[in-house]
Amino acid sequence: MRRLRFSSAGNEFSDNEKESAEWQSRLSQLMRELASWVATDEKSEEDYFHQKCVISNALIKAIPADNKYAGLRDEALRDFVALMSSSQLQKERPAEWFLHAKILIDRASAAQSPERDKLIPLIYNSRSTILHLYVQKEELLKSR
User: Fold this and answer.
1) Inter-residue contact 78 to 122 (CB < 8 Å)
2) How many folded domains does the chain comprise?
């Protein structure tokens, strides 16, 4: 993730620099690695969940929010929602789970169209009643 965010000189990549073939290749590689990463790769379900949430959130932040990257960003958002909604920590360790859920809820609340128009239905259609209710609450508060 560090190599996707920062150049060898330690500077954060600009959106223009992210158009390079090298950056695109790093992005594709990281997304493949995330897709193939499973809980049994780590010493515990909790470690896997926390690590994957942190990296997934950082990945979403790193992918520019413009039409050129919409498909990749949408994929990263879908994967993050799926990770959140399928995690057993939601029931077993709700406080730990909610630390990451809050990031997703805040992202959905702050998102602008067209990302918001994609993210809200993803959350509503997820298997997590908790995510659904929190986003619904945010929607109701915004309409006031």
Assistant:
1) yes
2) 1
